[in-house]
Design goal:
about 450 residues; mainly alpha
């Protein structure tokens, strides 16, 4: 089959996927599986191989994603239910002072967002934002917008979130380096977002009612005697990240024959790091909150139903990605990009941004883009760091253009009492600025590695 025919099939497949998800409102999990099966058949994959190719794609992604996402969500759930997230935000505010409450909450959101999904983190912090805004006498949007921006930035760039983990698995990027470099770039993006938010004329916006502004209970000071300290929360979040970074650093600097390399690879694996981190949190938080064994277990396990759909959709995205590879579409795209002259790192951002704008889900945009580019990356002479930066470019593409087809857009607007128009003028513009900024930093680093 010709390159043009394969590319047209890929475009048609993505278009059908968008129609099924947006217009027909078929669940993304089912839509991805249907489009994957149809694409495999149309591109000429032998009928008896269609299902095995789909199963292989599911296993390839879930093998790395399910464990990491499950452990990360359990860690975040323990911190959330114990009151640690609330305490973290309050402590930063007290330390930095009321005049710097926006900076304090943004820093707290950056730390909290590492193990906690965007929607959960925003819902946790939204009532706190309104409470502090009332005390400080400032517009809550001045606090909420930078908080939301950094939460979403971390969500699309850092493990254990499903998008970056799955994208890294599909293109062969080192998860530890993705975490290390992603942390640094995300921090810079967060600072820029903080100052960009000051340019919005939010005082002219009239806010409607919202669950966050009405949630008076959420802004009450919790029983400090049973809540983990801010230092404890930070330590519990940083601990697994530290192990991952140490493992990746040792693997980079140690020679191949060094006897410590296997140990470094084991300790620095996200599965090992998060499992150890979760066990420490299970003991520390459970003890501080005075939970019995049954309560500790129920809180941790309550995180799994929340992320089940995310894991399934992520796996289905892996199915689609594998079909794109096995059908030859990935090779066709690789050849086309080479002919056009568009660098892979730029294509990663552009394709991911386009898919994000078209269908809304950042995770689906990242998975589809990674699947489309995996062949080009596998066949290209890319260094470990270049592959990591391509993975981050995919993430920053999925960060921008959050609008009415994105569930996150509705969470932000509804919890802040924003109209759709005001949401587009503030939240959509802000996420796009963050995405473009993150990509430009990533692209700049790509030029020198």
């Amino acid at each position: 089959m010709s390159t043009l025919a394969l590319l047209l099939i890929a475009l048609a497949a993505v278009a059908v996927l968008l129609v099924l998800v947006i217009k027909v409102e078929l669940p993304a999990y089912v839509s991805l599986l249907l489009v994957s099966m149809g694409t495999a058949i149309v591109t000429g994959i032998a009928i008896e191989e269609v299902v095995p190719v789909m199963i292989a794609g599911m296993g390839k992604v879930l093998g790395s994603v399910a464990i990491v996402v499950g452990l990360g969500s359990m860690l975040g759930r323990l911190i959330e239910v114990s009151g640690g997230a609330d305490h973290l935000a309050r402590t930063f505010t007290e330390k930095l002072g009321r005049a710097r409450v926006a900076a304090a909450l943004t820093i707290a959101a950056f730390i909290l967002g590492i193990p906690v999904f965007f929607d959960v983190g925003f819902i946790i912090l939204a009532p706190i934002v309104f409470g502090f805004a009332k005390v400080a006498g400032i517009n809550p949007l001045k606090l909420a917008l930078p908080v939301g921006a950094i939460l979403l930035t971390v969500h699309v760039t850092l493990p254990p979130h499903p998008g970056p983990v799955a994208a890294a698995a599909q293109i062969g990027a080192d998860v530890g380096l993705v975490t290390l470099v992603g942390l640094l770039i995300s921090a810079v993006v967060g600072v820029i977002a903080f100052f960009v938010c000051k340019l919005f004329a939010v005082d002219k916006i009239v806010l409607g009612s919202s669950p966050a502004s009405d949630a008076t209970v959420a802004t009450e000071v919790p029983d400090i005697g049973k809540v983990p300290s801010a230092a404890t929360v930070v330590g519990l979040i940083v601990f697994p990240i530290f192990l991952i970074m140490v493992g990746s650093t040792l693997l980079t600097v140690l020679p191949e024959e060094n006897a410590l390399r296997p140990f470094a690879a084991f300790v620095g694996a996200p599965t090992t790091a998060l499992l150890l981190g979760l066990l420490v949190a299970y003991i520390v938080i459970g003890g501080k909150a005075r939970w019995d064994k049954s309560r500790r277990s129920s809180v941790a396990e309550s995180a799994l139903p929340i992320v089940a759909i995310i894991i399934f959709v992520t796996g289905a995205g892996g199915v689609f990605g594998n079909v794109l590879v096995e059908s030859g579409i990935g090779t066709a795209l690789s050849d086309s990009l080479t002919a056009v002259g568009m660098p892979t790192v730029v294509a990663a951002f552009v394709i991911s941004l386009a898919l994000r704008a078209a269908q809304g889900s950042a995770t689906v945009a990242m998975l589809t883009t990674a699947g489309l580019l995996s062949t080009a990356i596998a066949n290209g002479d890319y260094s470990t760091m270049q592959t990591v930066l391509i993975c981050l470019a995919i993430g920053f593409g999925a960060l921008g253009l959050s609008h009415i087809n994105d569930s996150g857009f509705w969470i932000v607007t509804k919890y802040l009492g924003l109209s759709v128009g005001d949401g587009l003028k503030t939240w959509t513009v802000l996420t796009t600025i963050c995405g473009v900024t993150g990509f430009l930093i990533t692209w700049g680093l790509y030029q020198v590695v």
